[in-house]
Design a protein that fits this description.
mainly alpha; three-stranded mixed beta sheet; 11 helices
Amino acid sequence: MFVIMLGCISCEWQFRLSDDDKSIVVDRYDRIQSLYLTTGDFSALQQMNTVYPMQTRTLVEDVLRIGKVDDPEINKTFLRFYQDTTLQALIAETQQQYASMDDINEQLTSAFRYLRKHIPDFDMPEVYAQIGSLDQSIIVGNNTIGICLDKYLGADYSLYRRPEYGYSEEQLRMMDRKYIVPDCVGFYLLSLYPMPLERNLSQEQRDIYVGKIQWVVDQAMGEEVFATRFTRMADHYMKRNKNATVDQLLRNNEFSDFK
């Protein structure tokens, strides 16, 4: 279910001096992006290129795939791309629904503090928000997490229901604000504990691996976000091995141990 997606944060990073008390505040790159894409404001474009070069490069080259960020015409291409009425509607809706992200900041801080407590040498990520084009949900790379707000506008958002997008009911259910933090945690964990590629895994083994990740997400969230046969396998494993750590659980790729 989880797929690491490369390509899919106003100066609101807040990190405290104590490693145990670090707080996460989503950096609102999406606001600068929105300002440029709706008004053509040149100062907003300057901020995108000077304050947020990594975010802008990732968006242009890896998410939208409309060219290279150093192309002389890329700013015009970028602006034209978002003049599409559908994307303009997405921009307006994201800015309305996500005028405040205080609840998400609190959940992110709590969840990642849990991981820091239970995983050795865990680094708190930097998190930013952006507006994509309905391609990706979460982007992970270089200790950063990018949230594509356009993929979390709610299952009943009319645009998602258009036949041309072909979203299943299960996909729609997860395109909701309440899944932002679980997705961030899950994708980040997968970047730290990638699925083993050196052997050909069966579908069941892949499901068990994802189940381990989702079980840890549930613990970090303090609630059962994912309830599957495979998260129950991970739960039974931890109950049988009471001295096992979260790190050991995620590193254990002897899938027979979970049956």
